[in-house]
Amino acid sequence: MMIKKLSLVTAVSVTAFSAWAQDSNSDDTLIVTANRFQQPVNTVLAPTSIVTREDIDKWQAKSLVDVMRRLPGVDIAVSGGIGQNSDIYIRGAESRHTLVLVDGIPLAKSGIAGTADFSQIPLSLVQRIELIRGPRSAVYGADAIGGVINVITQNNTPGGQIQASIGSNHFQQYDGSVRQQVGDKTLVTVAGAFEDTKGFNVRPDSPYSVDSDRDGFRNKTFWAGVNHTFNDQFSGFARGYGYSNKTGYDAGYRDGGDERQLYNHTYETGLNFTNGIYSSVLTGSYQRYKDYNYASTLGLYNVGTSLDDMTQRNLQWGNSFVVGQGTISAGIDWQQQELTSSDTFTADTYKRDNTGYYLTAQQHVKTVTLEASARGDDNDQFGWNGTWQTAAGWEFVPDYRVTLSYGTGFQAPTLGQMYGQKRLSIIPNPDLDPEKSQQWEIGFEGQTGPLNWQLSAYRNKIDNLITYYYDDDTWQGTYYNIQSATIKGIEWTGSFDTGIFSHQITLGYLDPRRDQDDEVLAHRSKQQYKYQLDWNMFGFDMDVAYQYFSKSFNNNTNQFASTQRRMPSYSLVDIAASYPITSHLTVRGRIANLFDKDYETVYGYQTPGREYYLTGSYTF
Known about the structure:
- By secondary structure, this protein is mainly beta.
- The chain has one domain: Maltoporin, Chain A (Beta Barrel), CATH 2.40.170.20.
- The chain is 4% helix and 58% strand.
- It has helices at residues 8-11, 53-59, 64-69, 137-140, 415-419, and strands spanning 30-31, 39-40, 48-52, 74-78, 86-90, 98-102, 105-106, 128-133, 147-152, 159-167, 171-182, 186-200, 215-229, 234-248, 259-275, 278-294, 306-323, 326-342, 347-365, 368-379, 383-397, 400-411, 435-448, 451-471, 476-498, 501-514, 519-520, 527-537, 540-549, 552-553, 566-567, 570-580, 585-592, 611-619.
């Protein structure tokens, strides 16, 4: 524990945006996602988890789902294996209530549900993940009700790596990266990856013969960027990356859509200025997503093919100042979204702009840390939304701290929810209001002997929940604000060492209920127990992970379901080992779902049984 050993110099070596996190990723104790300025992770008053590239390699994760499932407060509902639709629930909030950032910039969401499809992000791109649990709308705006996931794609350490993997279900993966220093001031990075798996039949009980095939996943990824330091005050970057995915799934009816092709192209550039106590960052980005869904029996260019063509532009300007024993950050975020949703007969085109203004601050006064944020978002569709949060931490005795926080959040309706979608027979409801939340949280943390622990209890009230209703008479549907929910929870995390063994434990209790009838929300486990054991012996690095998720429900009652379907509890054990044959060559092996547990997280969708993976990597 480092509460009483805080270095002010480190705390205020400010960086305004997460896009610049890569400049300090070699120090795992630094984080930028919490307040949009760089600070030691032990000074963050919100529960936080950091996953490094070294962690990902040690765990031998094959997808972001593999990584996120290990973290505290996270439930995941997966409709099959790698690349299949995945919904993440942080602290019981809806999947759409999680803000997913890539290098500090919101991931474009093309679907009508408003959920960022993080399952399609290739893990080969990921160098670091920062997870903030709890509301962060006062810092980032819409979506950050349950938490924020920031996926950081760059590593600024010169060098390179070539890696190859094979595994169950005809899995194969090949990736490589080179980071070359050019002179003293320029770093050039080039990376690429290919991944393919034949998968398995995710709906073996489907009565349609077309659904009896394997549902595989194929991905191609390319990343290139340059960082340049002009002088002691100015530096800049430019980068671009893209990936194309092809995913097979089951439609559940004849000639239904069962193939998905997704194309992403993202370009980003930025300029950083630092002078004494002042730092400023200006970044711009362009994202283009083309998301096709079609029937394999008919082909891509035929009747039944749908396309969501999404363009998102972001411009962010942030400024940070050292003030007293802390930091103040203020800035402007501008975002423009354009979406064309079409099939072979109809098309809908949408466009909206949002401008956000934020102010965050943290101050240390002896043993007390104070934190506050405020933000206003001006949206050309639903007007002005203001959010705020505040927190205080008190180190009442050395190495022990109590925290108290309150924060508000909001979730913006999607373009299709407000203005309808012809191909899905959804009619407009321009009167939709944003979903809004208010969360209280109290926490305790400390260092007791070898045990570093943190206990949090929270209550999150979410109003104006958006719900879909279908009219059998008109054969049309629409979205309304008609529900609210109250989520209560307790989570405890701890880590300690015993000899050569390192232990990490997560215990979680969740009570998420719909206010109108006290019904438990779907896909949330009431209890979670997660345990990770790591050790090194005879040159082998070993990792064992155990995860238990208690019973949950597959659905909530509505006009289509009069009862809730209960899903059984399940537990998983993964084991991984790695051995450095030379200083450059490492061999890794993993067995996922060691005891071949038969379980489902979405009713009717099979999940992988026991899986085996073997990886070789060469660094230079």
